[in-house]
Write a structure and sequence with these properties.
- The chain has helices at about 5-10, 15-25, 40-50, 65-80, 95-105, 125-130, 150-155, 180-190, 230-235, 250-260, 265-275, 280-305, 330-340, 370-395; strands at about 30, 90-95, 115-120, 135-140, 160-165, 195-200, 225-230, 240-245, 310, 315-320, 345, 345-350, 365.
- The chain is of the alpha/beta class.
- The strands form three sheets. The chain has a seven-stranded mixed sheet with strand order 2-8-7-6-5-3-4, with helices on both faces.
- Strand 3 (about 115-120), helix 6 and strand 4 form a beta-alpha-beta unit.
- Helix 4 packs parallel to helix 11.
- The radius of gyration is 22 Å and the shape is globular.
- The chain starts with 5 loop residues before the first helix and ends in a 10-residue tail after the last helix.
- The protein binds 4'-deoxy-4'-aminopyridoxal-5'-phosphate (PMP) and glutamine (GLN).
- The site of glutamine has 5 residues, from loops.
Length: about 400
């Protein structure tokens, strides 16, 4: 028998599915995959339920229901001052995941180069490669994750078609600064390149950090494809409703990709997301402040347990260095041990790198978009497991056994 597609056959199952399955197997508190354990806003859920019952369940328009496209355009203006024509500049997709793939499909020809910034979300690289494009990777370095300007500039060249960037960034919780964005804007203009901007955490920033869409910078309106996710903005990750805002000429090409991938997205969910996007500013502020309190709770708890906790400026995630605890193994070994022994699941940070061998191997990513009781239970379980682990070492008359892969 001939082999199936080589690239897909060689793509592993996503780390989020792997770790969630391991969490279920061991009855672990799942702080791995980034999904809230509470329902989203009741009025939005109710709108979706009601919308099922009024006989509009057939295919919606391909680029999205007019009411949602109008709501996306209005939100662009209300939050970011970006003027958008809803009929021609918005495409609704089945999640940001589809929006990312459709945007890359819309831009890339085989041989085009794409600049990507590590640590990166797990769908980016395989999709770029599937399209026959050439990834150019640039790395942010912990603990500050600042933009390495010289390396970024060096990654751009005559064949650069696009930059794919994510702010606020999963997993490192970085929010790009105005100065970093201005530097990126200059590179894009000098190299006549586009930017696919994954902004699914646009409303989730902390400590006075504010998200700035690259698209809102002078001269960048025509170069950016800006992606949002109702899953993140309304804490309803299973809904998979995403939206791309792009200049009309690109939006119509993204619509072609959407036509090939899914064609449309469930109409009742689209109608409910339109209701959500029209909620008052206080909803969006409340989302950020609620998650900020959870960020504080988990980061203080992890620091108390002895982790080296990195700063979290946005997103659902905290990265924590486990070496101060005395663990000498790598992040995959640590996350496996944590799931099996402490019964708490986190994601090894090296999963967000193209080459795990050269990636940082001493950080675990914890999701804090959970009930306080869930966070407290995870912390209590880790505290008990670390105490038992240290105790074992003492009984053996030695330092705690270093955990190795
Ligand atoms: N991009 C990033 C950075 C993410 O963290 C996620 C996570 N869920 C997605 C895209 C996908 O969003 P969606 O669930 O809307 O497909
Ligand atoms: N974005 C989520 C995360 O980073 C997971 C999404 C998924 O499981 N594909 O945890």
């Amino acid at each position: 028998m001939k082999a199936p597609n080589t690239l897909l056959a060689n793509t592993g199952t996503t780390i989020f599915t792997v770790m969630s399955a391991l969490a279920a197997e061991h009855g672990a508190v799942n702080l791995g995959q980034g999904f809230p354990d509470a329902e989203g806003p009741a009025d939005v859920v109710r709108a979706a339920a009601d919308a099922l019952l009024d006989q509009r369940n057939q295919y919606p328009p391909m680029t999205g229901l007019p009411e949602l496209r109008e709501a996306v355009a209005a939100a662009n203006w209300r939050f970011w001052g970006i003027e958008v024509e809803p009929a021609t500049e918005v495409v609704v997709t089945s999640g940001a995941t589809e929006a990312i793939t459709a945007s890359l499909m819309a831009l890339l020809d085989p041989g085009d180069e794409v600049v990507l910034i590590e640590p990166l979300y797990d769908t980016y690289l395989p999709v770029v490669r599937m399209l026959g494009a050439v990834p150019r990777l640039v790395r942010l370095e912990p603990p500050r994750w600042e933009l390495p300007r010289a390396a970024l500039a060096a990654a751009f060249g005559p064949r650069t078609k696009a930059l794919l960037m994510n702010s606020p960034q999963n997993p490192c919780a970085k929010v790009y600064t105005a100065a970093e964005l201005a530097f990126i804007a200059d590179l894009l203009q000098r190299h006549d390149a586009y930017a696919v901007c994954d902004e699914v955490y646009e409303h989730i920033t902390f400590d006075g950090w504010r998200h700035i869409p690259l698209m809102s910078l002078p001269g960048l309106r025509e170069r950016c494809l800006r992606i949002g996710s109702a899953g993140k903005t309304f804490s309803l990750t299973g809904w998979k409703v995403g939206y791309v805002t792009a200049p009309a000429v690109l939006a119509s090409t993204i619509a072609k990709a959407h036509q090939l991938l899914t064609f449309t997205t469930p109409p009742n969910l689209q109608r409910a997301v339109a209701v959500g996007l029209a909620k008052p500013d206080s909803y969006f502020e409340g989302l950020a402040r609620g998650l900020e309190a959870k960020r504080d709770r988990l980061s203080a708890g992890l620091a108390r347990l002895g982790f080296g906790v990195l700063e979290t400026r946005g997103s659902y995630f905290i990265s924590a260095d486990f070496r101060p605890l005395g663990f000498a193994g790598d992040d995959v070994a640590f996350c496996r041990w944590l799931t099996e022994t402490a019964k708490v699941t986190a994601i090894p940070l090296s999963a967000f790198y193209a080459d795990a061998a050269t990636a940082p191997r001493h950080y675990a990513r914890f999701a804090f978009c959970k009930h306080d009781t869930t966070l407290d239970l995870a912390l209590a379980r880790m505290e008990a497991a670390f105490a038992a682990w240290r105790g074992e070492g003492q009984r053996a008359g030695a330092a705690p056994r270093a955990l190795t892969a």
